[in-house]
Amino acid sequence: MIRDDFRSGKINLETTHKLLAKLNIRCNYIHLKCIFKDNDRLKQGKITIEEFRSIYRIIAHREDVIEIFNTYSRSQKFLFEKNLVEFLTQEQYIYSMTKSFASEIIQKYEPIENVKQAHQMSLEGFTRYMSSSDCLLFNNECEKVYQDMTHPLSDYFISSSHNTYLISDQLVGPSDIWGYISALLKGCRCLEIDCWDGSQNEPVVYHGYTLTSKLLFKTVIQAIRKYAFITSDYPLVISLENHCSPSQQEVMADNLQFILGDALLSDMLDDFPDKLPSPEALKFKILVRNKKKGTLTETRERRHSDKHGQIQEFEEYEESDQEEEEDQVQESESLDVVRDNPEKGTRSRSLVRLPRFRKRRVKVALALSDLVIYTKAEKFRNFQHSRQYQQFNESNSIGESEARKLSKLAVSDFILHTSKFITRIYPKATRADSSNFNPQEFWNVGCQMVALNFQTPGLPMDLQIGKFLDNGNCGYILKPQFLRDSETKFNPNEALQNSNPLTLTIRLISGIQLPPSYSSNKADALVIIEIFGVLNDQVKQQTRVIKGNAFSPRWNETFTFIIQVPELAMIRFVVESQNILAGNEFLGQYTLPVLCMSKGNNPKGYRRIPLFSKIGQSLEPASLFTYVWYVR
Question: Which residues are catalytically annotated?
Answer without folding.
Answer: 162, 207
